[in-house]
Amino acid sequence: MLNLNRAQVLGNLTKDAEMRYTPNGHAVASFTVATNRRWTGADGVQQDATEYHDIVVWGKLAETVSPMLKKGGPAFVEGRLQTRSWEGQDGVKRYKTEIVGDNIIVLGSRSGSAPSGSAEMPETSENPIKNIAKDESKDKVKEEEIDIEEIPF
To answer: Residue 78: exposed, middle, or buried by beta-carbon count in 10 A (0-12, 13-18, 19+)?
Structure first.
């Protein structure tokens, strides 16, 4: 049986990413991305809804993108859904579903002042998702000389 657990969101950060380290020294960054949806209701009135997606990023990827993830800035996040549970101080079992990001593209900020970049999680034994090997020969472009006089500008 085939299974698929992938999530993709493109939205704006609700606050700066929070960078922490586990007691074992593993880097973890967490942040929230807001996405908006607009539709016209049956009464003809436009309506808006905002969804908030909690994101967790681990390891080197967390350390790389955390400084670039600023409040209000747009980002594309790709990863898998994961639900964790814990018992609260009141004895009630609580649940939280998050996106565990393995590909983050920081698109900059609304004002354009934040740096842009993209990062992908390196393949580790902790990351069960295996990358399909790319045919690198397709990525190579034949180099050819360009005559400066042929450039139209």
So the answer is: middle
